[in-house]
Amino acid sequence: MSWADFDKIGQGGFGAVYYAELTSKRKGRDETKRERERETREQARTKRRRRERREALA
């Protein structure tokens, strides 16, 4: 196997491993961001509902 073989993605060389690590990091970051945004939306929704209930009772 020559060094040229290691540069081909999908051949198990360093490039493939590095590419896989980058994509998994990116996916993990995106999932974390989505979770954080979802939690923020849920908190805002809860806050809004509590305020609406308070106003309805007043």
Please characterize this protein's 3D structure.
The protein has 2 helices and no strands. By secondary structure, the chain is an all-alpha fold. The chain has a domain of 40 residues. The model has no long low-confidence stretch (mean pLDDT 81).
Descriptive tags:
2 helices, mainly alpha, rod-shaped, 58 residues, Protein kinase domain-containing protein, 83% helix
Gist of the model:
It contains two helices and no strands. The protein has 58 residues and is mainly alpha-helical. It has a domain of 40 residues.
Q: What distance separates the N and C termini? A: 78 Å
Order of helices and strands: HH
Shape descriptor reads rod-shaped
Q: Helical content, roughly?
A: over 70%
Poorly predicted tracts of residues: none
- Number of DSSP strand runs: 0
Radius of gyration: 24 Å
If helices are DSSP runs of H or I spanning 4 or more residues, what is the number of helices? 2
From the helix content, strand content and strand pairing, which structural class follows?
mainly alpha
Largest sheet: none
Approximately what portion of the residues adopt beta-strand conformation? under 5%
Mean pLDDT: 81
What are the SSEs and their pairings?
Layout: H1 3-6, H2 14-57
